[in-house]
Design a protein that fits this description.
The chain is built from 18 helices and five strands. By secondary structure, the chain is mainly alpha-helical. The strands form two sheets. Strands 1-2-3 form a three-stranded antiparallel beta sheet. Strands 4-5 form a two-stranded antiparallel sheet. Strand 4 and strand 5 form a beta hairpin.
């Protein structure tokens, strides 16, 4: 084989989560009372915008979760060996960004290094000047034409993006006209005027913006370092995109650990009350009294000692870093379930006195049947809202933990590690600002989209909002 598949623990969990989401989508689609709120989410402009942004992030994260090791040349005995470096499909797609490593810092869209060096001039004399980059702007024979070249690249990429979006619009109009047996021009006007059930003008405006950004980044990154390079010369744009998977893993897998504890213990405490309620309250009160950062730091250090004492269990650096990431998700999940548990306990205390629950109990229904048929479905909107809201908080938590040195492995690219390395760069004169800026922009867009999505989901699943509509 030309490659050897590598299945990291976080990859497997991501695949399982994807399968669960697909199964849940099929389940919801066949039940109108469940699918109606989700249709409301898509019909809102904010919902459409946030879903499109999150889809882009999730796509990059999934492409970065298919790992393998490339095959090397067979040895003298024709035995097949594989590279020790574990890469992903995303790495192959961005191979030029990954491989084009400069000597050290360079500013965004620059053609020279950020620091001066002693170098030999054309006449053989030594000069102290900014050296040309090895890859950034290497196609230019005259660096004075750099901004003209960048301008032409942006114009060409923008025209291509406009043409692509227009083709999607024409194809969409043709498909809608064929499906509804109407005129193509009439259907195109209905779409552009927003005379449909969904905010299609918002969709196409957002699609145009995303395609414009993607096309310009791809076109410019072919010849330049769009966000510059870091201390070791690695492209900052590649680091910002590579960090997406780490943020998504922290936000989603931590939720998988947190949900069972929060749902089971919260509902049990509110429904059974008595000594069960006292015990569960004692557990989460005690856990809340322990400083979360100290608990996470202790757990990560214990894992680090174990990995140092058992290096034979980790064949590659990627497997070692992935184990630390998985362990960090588990610890964050164990320490972050208490808030949702309290909310579910309070809601269950109210629901257990509802008339339909009292009627079920009077008719002899078992506690399990009441919890399964009446309590759990009526608290799921709180669970869903809390999960979406906690996602953005967990993404920010990874950045904070990596900044203080107890987050993901230093060999793993993440927004937290980028911010951690940027604190010394900000003390330079002149300031190296682009690493921090790239991490901030990437993380800000993801967290903002997640918060907007959570806002729309909360409105869609709020019974009072449904009655007002």
């Amino acid at each position: 084989m030309s490659f050897l598949p590598v299945f990291l623990w976080t990859d497997i969990l991501i695949y399982l989560l994807l399968a669960v989401v697909a199964a849940a989508a099929v389940f919801v689609k066949n039940r109108p009372h469940l699918s109606a709120p989700w249709k409301t989410v898509i019909q809102r402009k904010r919902g459409m915008i946030s879903i499109m942004i999150l889809f882009c992030y999730v796509t990059i994260g999934l492409l970065d979760s298919i790992h393998f090791r490339l095959a090397l040349e067979p040895d003298s005995q024709q035995r097949q060996h594989y590279a020790t470096e574990v890469i992903s499909v995303f790495d192959l797609l961005t191979d030029s960004l990954r491989q084009q490593v400069e000597k050290t810092y360079s500013a965004p869209l620059s053609t020279h290094l950020f620091v001066k060096e002693i170098q030999a001039a054309a006449d053989g004399t030594l000069v102290y000047d900014y050296p040309r980059l090895k890859f950034g702007g290497a196609h230019l024979s005259d660096v004075d034409n750099k901004w003209y070249d960048i301008q032409q690249t942006i114009i060409n990429a923008s025209v291509l993006a406009l043409l692509l979006v227009f083709l999607v619009y024409v194809f969409h109009s043709a498909a809608a006209a064929w499906y509804t047996k109407t005129d193509l021009r009439q259907q195109a006007k209905r779409i552009i005027k927003g005379e449909t059930s969904y905010p299609l003008p918002t969709f196409y405006l957002m699609l145009l913006l995303l395609v414009l950004v993607a096309a310009n980044l791809v076109a410019l990154s072919a010849d330049y370092h769009v966000f510059g390079t870091d201390k070791v010369g690695q492209d900052v744009l590649y680091q910002a995109l590579k960090s997406i998977r780490t943020g998504l893993v922290i936000g989603t897998l931590t939720t998988l650990v947190m949900l069972p504890l929060a749902i089971f213990l919260g509902i049990a405490a509110g429904y059974f009350r008595g000594w069960i309620d006292d015990l569960i309250q004692y557990i989460y009160t005690t856990l809340n009294s322990i400083p979360g950062v100290l608990l996470i730091a202790a757990a990560v250090l214990i894992l680090q000692v174990y990995m140092n004492n058992n290096p034979e269990q980790f064949a590659t650096v990627a497997e070692r870093a992935d184990m630390r990431l998985l362990f960090l998700c588990i610890i964050l999940g164990v320490t972050s379930w208490t808030g949702l548990c309290r909310i579910l306990r309070a809601e269950t205390l109210k629901l257990r006195e509802a008339e339909y629950v009292l009627a079920s109990r009077a008719l002899g229904a078992s506690s399990f049947s009441i919890l399964h048929k009446h309590i759990l479905p009526n608290v799921m909107h709180l669970v869903l809202i809390a999960v979406v809201l906690d996602f953005s908080g967990l993404v920010l938590a990874e950045a904070v933990l990596s900044y203080v040195g107890v987050g993901v492995d230093p060999s793993m690219i993440s927004w937290g590690n980028m911010i951690n390395s940027a604190r010394l760069e900000m003390a330079r004169d002149p300031v190296v600002w682009w690493s921090l800026t790239a991490a901030f922009i990437s993380m800000f867009i993801l967290v903002l989209a997640a918060n907007l999505f959570a806002d729309v989901v909360r409105d869609a699943f709020d019974p009072r909002m449904q009655r007002s509509r």
